[in-house]
Amino acid sequence: MKKNKSDEKVMKDHPLPAPKNSENSLMKNDMLRVGLSIGILTLFISILLLYVVNNLILTHYAPDLKAIVDKVAPLSIANRTDFIPEPVERLQYQVTLLCIPIFIFIVFTLINRKKDFFYKTPLLSLAINIGGILAFIFYAIKLSGHGLAYIPDVTTTYFFSNNLIGIFNPVIMLIFYGLCTYGFIVYNKSTETILKKRIVNVISYFIVSIIILDMILYNVFHLAMAEWGRFMETNAVFYAMSQVYAGKSLLVDINAQYGLYGWILCPLFKVIGLSIFKFGMVMSILNGISFFLLYLGIKKITRNDIISLLAFACLIFWEYWQGRLPFESTPRYYYQYNPIRFFFPALVFFLVVTYFTCAENRRRIFLPLLALSASFAIFWNLDTGLVVYGATFIALLFSTLNLPTLKDILKKCLYFSAWMLGSLVFVIILFLLSTKIRAGVLPDFKHFAEFQNIFYGSGFFMLPMIFFHFWNYPALVYIVCCVYCVSQVKKAAQPETNVLVFLFILGCGLFAYFQGRSYDMTIDGVMYPAIIIIGILCKKLFETIGKDKIRFNENLVLFLIPFLFITDGALSMIYYTPSIHSFAMNNAFPNNPAKEDTLRRRMDFVTDNIPAKDTVVIISQDYDGYFYAQGSYYNPINIPGSSELFFKSDLYTLLDTIRTTRRPIIYDGTRVYHNFDTIVKTLAQYTHIDKETPDHTLVLLKHGGTSQPRMAPPDASTLYYNDYGDFSKFLNTSAVLTLPENFTIEIYASLNENELARNNLMFSNSSKISFFHGIVMVQTGEDETQYTFTYADGSRYCPGVTFKLETSTENHVLIKVRKNIITVYNNDKLCGEADTKSAIKNSNELFFMSTDFAGTVHEIKISKD
User: Fold this and answer.
1) CB contact at 8 A, 655 and 607
2) Cα–Cα distance, 54 to 89 (Å, whole number)
3) Backbone phi, then psi, for 405, in 5-degree steps?
4) 655 closest CA partner among 671, 630, 673
5) What contacts 154, CB < 8 A, 6 or more positions away?
6) What pLDDT score does 726 carry?
7) Helix-strand-coil percent breakdown of the chain, rounded to 5?
8) CA 156 to CA 411: how far, in whole Å?
9) DSSP three-state, residue 863
């Protein structure tokens, strides 16, 4: 029917309402605003629900902590106080992981049904968005002033102390970062040319190459450059590798706390050979590869060279360098996390990104690689491997939800399940067959999670979390990521969404590492998925700004917040790169001939007396892996390495071997072993010294005990006595001393001039609770051979006697206390006398000999007079 002009005027003045749920008729900005407001409401309501659930658990779940400790403590050689069970916190964490996607899906679905209401009231959406942004800003300000749990007298701002915003004036730096953001926006809105892209690419790869090179150089392990902590940390992963290389099979005659990485790496070391230097080089190269794979993955998924560079530099700063600055005297390698817990998450992340961004025909190649890598990850390291496998599986299944029919979804899910489960079965069979061929028996999988079950279940060496803490930030990022992924379920499949699902599961799963041992700085190691998420969301938010004139709105503000974070982290990384490079170069190319010669002589003592690839028992706490690897030696005892020794049953196995073995035994007196007093007494009873180093700290023992002559044998007046001959350097037999006014301390000890140090403690029983109680003997003054003996009278440490110990001969020190008079003799010569003017105040602490004493204490006796 023909319309007249009056009808046209009515239509113009009073248009018909748009069809319901028609998004095409809405402006893009309105759609973004409404979507953002729905997301913010979903976020806040979900967090509120999680808070309620966690409070219900805290209120109504009250397990018997004492019963948990009573069950596990008798099995372990560790102190009972080392067990801090966290069943309530663990349940809260597990329930939270389960509830996050459920709550978010339900809340988002309910709110999204009312989105038409938000379209009709745009001011409400604007108010919600502004309120959400302001709430986050106020929360961040409040959180920044909250104290940390285990670093006293500092707040959350401690985490930014090494960042540029913490080094320089924060206001000036924020202005500078604002200018950087503006420059980034202008640059990306300008016309892109091939020349511009190549220049940015060259600069990016140059910066990334320098950063990764420094990472590799920093992680090169040198015995001469390492300290006790580094020996221990590296030995924890190196010992298992040394024994697998020597012929043992994992889960048959050796177990390893950090996984079956030795099984995977053994073929490589069979080709190149095994030594501590080669092991350190492999670990450092794996670290470099891990971070490079992360960069390639970030670059591929963000498709923005600048954002990918900023996100990567920020990631490596927070995940690795932030907790290592300022530098310690030697690098903190900590191979247990980098690369043991880091390599496969990085590899699988890269493969996940590659799979979801490549063409359909190439996915047939990358899916098997992805499934196999995720399966091998479980065997490499169980802690992170299960998380990586689960994150990969869920991301693949999630990617099917955009298919048109339920039949298509189920068919695709079965296809992915077949590859994932089939790959896992393949790796299990491969491990079973290779172990059967190598060891003649099948592995016992009940030992696979032995360490994890008892450590995580019993709370061994764990620390509780606090509510307000820096960990809130990455946790918030993971929840935001989940909200975004849920909002994209019914929309066209996007590679970013599937990758974000993987990162969400990965980040939440890895968070267990911090939840268990919640030391403040541990959060750095598990937040790298959150930083990648921030980089991806930065790219997504930047796309909402548009190519037109820059308008200040909530989308721009939301882009600024994460972009300023990755900019600060990235520029902080670049700022520290010169000093990191200098330190890393000094580590990779050391020049410490004196220390190297000392260590080389000790290594040579072992290889000169034990043929290569022989079977030998080496007793050296936190150092046995190095000795075993030096000659490719085989340990006949089926127990973990000394750094992982935990169960009493393993200790009993070691003692039984000492009593019965005809194999040679190397005992290292400079490395205090767990329960070493019992071990040394057993050695003294069943073995004798065949050869020893000139300083008596490294001895070769053969079967057949001999009695050691005592220079100061105990008698009826002896209050404390210890005599281990030349077997041990440190004595810490448990004993609470109650000293009378008159007592005598007699010591036979030698001093090692290569280990002299300031403030070096020989012995003490000073109280940690009641100050100024007990006795002490410690190095004082500029001369490092000079020691002082004194005691406390309840209000102070009295002026004692200062004297010198000889380095060229054994010291026979005689300390006599007569009421308030201290007299000291060394080798029958009077060293000094002091009037303390007060009597000793006894301590209730155990008497102990310091594990860091710069010499060998052969015998000590404390007697009443």
Assistant:
1) no
2) 9
3) -125, 160
4) 673
5) 147, 148
6) 40
7) 55, 10, 30
8) 49
9) strand
Per DSSP (E only), the strands in 717-844 are 718-723, 742-751, 761-764, 775-779, 786-791, 801-804, 811-818, 821-826, 829-835
The SS3 call for residue 820 is: coil
Tokens of 426: 């393949």
d(CA 855, CA 865): 28
Question: Contact at 8 Å (CB) between 35 and 128?
Answer: no
Burial grade of 769 (CB within 10 A; 0-12, 13-18, 19 or more):
exposed
Phi-psi region of 459 (alpha: psi -120 to 50; beta: other; left: phi over 0): left
Sheet holding 829-835, edge to edge: 718-723, 855-864, 742-751, 811-818, 821-826, 829-835
Residue 361 burial (CB count, 10 A): 7
Distance CA 606, CA 554 (A): 69
In whole angstroms, what is the distance from residue 616 CA to residue 609 CA? 11
The pairing of beta strand 665-668 with beta strand 617-619: parallel
Query: Do 697 and 670 meet the contact criterion of CB atoms below 8 Å apart?
Result: yes
What the block records as the tokens of 488 is 């994209």
Q: Is the alpha carbon torsion for 352, 357, 360, 365 positive or negative? A: negative
Pairing assessment for the beta strands 855-864 and 742-751 based on DSSP bridges: antiparallel
Q: Helix 554-588 to helix 122-144 angle, to the nearest 10 degrees? A: 30
Helix (H, G, I), strand (E, B) or coil at 57: helix
Instruction: Give the H or E element holding residue 557.
Output: helix 554-588
**Of 557, 491, 532, 772, nearest in space to 33 by CA:** 557
Q: Is 36 exposed, middle or buried (0-12, 13-18, 19+ CB in 10 A)?
A: buried
Tell me the sheet residues that pair with 306: none
pLDDT digits 0-9 by tens, 472-503: 999 999 999 999 999 998 775 689 999 999 99
Q: What residues have CB less than 8 Å from 536, skipping those under 6 apart?
A: 298, 301, 302, 496, 499, 500, 503
Give the up-direction half-sphere exposure of residue 569: CA atoms within 13 A in the CB hemisphere: 30
**Which one, of 791, 842, 802, 845, lies nearest residue 824 by Cα?**
802
Name the band, by pLDDT with cuts 50, 70 and 90, for residue 729: very low
pLDDT band at 673 (very low <50, low <70, confident <90, very high): low
Count the residues in the chain: 865
Q: Left (φ > 0), alpha (ψ -120 to 50) or beta: where does 440 sit? A: left
Arithmetic mean of pLDDT over the chain: 88
Q: Is the pLDDT of residue 22 over 70?
A: no
Neighbours of 359 (CB within 10 A): 6
- Residue 845 pLDDT more than 60? yes
Whether pLDDT at 599 is above 90:
no
Confidence of residue 461 (pLDDT cuts 50, 70, 90): confident
Residues 6+ apart with CB under 8 A from 161: 167
Sign of CA dihedral 195, 201, 204, 207: negative
Side chain identity at 381, as an amino acid letter?
N
Rounded to whole angstroms, the Cα distance separating 274 from 241 reads: 9
Three-state secondary structure of 422-449: HHHHHHHHHHHHHHHHHHCCCCCHHHCC
What is the pTM assigned to this prediction? 0.80
pLDDT for residue 849 is more than 90: no
Neighbours of 165 (CB within 10 A): 23
Widest CA span in the chain: 129
